[in-house]
## 1
Amino acid sequence: MSAKFSNNYYLKRGKTHDKATLIKLMQLTYEELFPNRSNFSHLSKTVEQYLSAKTPIWWIKSQIENNPSEVVAGLWMGTAIDQVSGDRYGHIFLIYVMPKHRRQGLATALIKQGKQWVEDQGYHQLGLQVFEHNQVAQKLYHKLGFVTQSHLMLQSF
């Protein structure tokens, strides 16, 4: 499935063998958010454990790049269980847009695709986790109707 949604970009459904691309986008995400850390090799284990036909990926590719098959944004979806209600819901594992392609509506288009997938699964909620210091992403998510339900708290020892 491939869909053109602007003059310069098109959306394409990924496949489970797209592991290297998914790991690359995950690594870019964490390098950007945590520039003082250099080792994110564990991300490949996450992909190996959770990527399946039940956790779909969508890629956005640019038609204006030198290499039109290069991914400029991606969305990885899955499911989770609301621990209060017990209901399953769609969960965004990863959403990432390359910096030079931001502010073009790509993340919004990916979230729209994610919502469609959630509805197709018969779920009634879409969730995601966002880091506290990622204010730009939080602003976008609030604008798109997401509300904070909980805070993840960790203790290191």
## 2
Amino acid sequence: MPNITWDAASYKKNFSFVPAYGEAVIGLITKPPGSSVIDLGCGSGSLTGRIAQKGYTVTGIDDSEEMLRLAKKEHPDINFIKGNAVTFHLAEEADVVFSNAVFHWVDEKDQQEMLSNICRSLKPGGELVCEFGGSGCAETVHGTLEQCFSHRGLGYRRVFYFPTIGQYAPMLEKAGFRIEYAALFDRPTPQNGPDGLADWIRMFVKKPFEGMEESLKEEIIADAVSRLRDRLCRDGRWTVDYVRIQFRAVRKRSKS
């Protein structure tokens, strides 16, 4: 199941790079305009809108009611429904399931079930097009936070799922897909403003801080920022060491 609760307003204000980078992923779709597309984990609907502009019949699905309210407000002509990646259900099979920056938020134990559910939701020959965090994503930040936690006698919970192609491809095949395209690549990602790294941690690293006093949380974030300044900040601009993984996989056609 997804393991984060979103602050939609802050996400839109400070992290617009997420859908901005995702626009390139739309280019991996090979189905023609007019095809039915599910934007799985649509968030604020920014990419859902871009998919619609390209002539697709698109439906956005997200598990965050706050994000869905924002999506419906900004894109009133698009159909948005509540559902999570593991258990969503469609009345009719789709031509494409598209997903950007979502799968790494799904617990590792649920990944196979999620992929099987996606495959069942596609027509035979339909395609899954996705990008999410790959092996080593933001490891400089996570490793440093782990040190900061350990220094205080605390354990740092690694809740993100960042696989290699070799780990993920067999899972796609087991779910019923044939892989047509796969890539794993570094994508250093600039953050907004002089507090960009601290804002990034507050937005995306929530589970490890659950139940912690706010003062201790801010102390740890400040410690991490101090330790990382020389490595990740240049001319006052923070950059996080993202690694991304992309797939285009097609649901196998039945033999009959």
## 3
Amino acid sequence: MSGARSRARGQALQALYQWQLTAQPSHDISRLFLRDPESAGGVDEAYFAELIREIPQHVEELDGLLAAHLDRALAEVDPVERAILRIGVYELRYRLEIGPRIVLNEAVELAKRYGGEAGHKFVNAVLDGAAKVLRTPEKRL
């Protein structure tokens, strides 16, 4: 992973993981991450802030979009992979300027770096299914 936006996704993953486990308000978690110079260095702070603000606000919708592509309940998905899936499906749904291949590649790289041994294959399969629904030619217009 390289680039400020990729680093923002990595930081958002960690922040969303914390949010999922602690139920702390996402804005509190966001402030902690942005205040830490080690965490915030080279990060697209605006994109990080968007992800950590918008994903919790849209979590029910995003989880619903993911559910159709899962082989188990979302609550049974590893928390790291769940956070990665939420970032990916958020980008597929709301950031149409980011191509689906980029979304999938970024998510797979996060899963390889932070997830379980075969987590990247699972993440790829789920988001590929979601991309086929969310990024049909009609929805790109």
## 4
Amino acid sequence: MNVLKWLKEKMLSKKISRTLGQKEFIHIATSNPECRPNAAPKFLLRFENNFIYLVDYTISRTWKNLKINPRASLSVMDTDTLLGYQINGKVEIIERGAAYRILLKEFKAKGISLSAQRIVEGLRREKTHKSFEAALPEKVVFFKLKIEEVVEIGTHGGIKREKL
């Protein structure tokens, strides 16, 4: 394969990696057996090696949909460049075991850090908080999405696709 072509193809992966590194939440879209769509924000735990790890602490419609149909689409916006991204792939649900315990520990640490940042920032802006944000949910599951396709939506409607 031509090296320039390979580098060009991997540009979307680099852009999405940079964009995800700046986000705490990302939207996931699923559908039920009757094709009823469901889109919900989820806590973005990490992105590595073409996998995105999300936390679901409501354990409701998204979880139920993924149990039946593991296909999902994520969406995120880079507000600096105004480029939108759609990330498509297959999800593995992690509900127990060694991987679960590792992800749970990571979630607790990241959740506390994010809560502390939000409280400090709120104090700087003299914003009051209605709840103590460091309280973490008692039950969570993790979604491990294997990225199969990234779609970039340009500011003038242009679309670029990258299959992984």
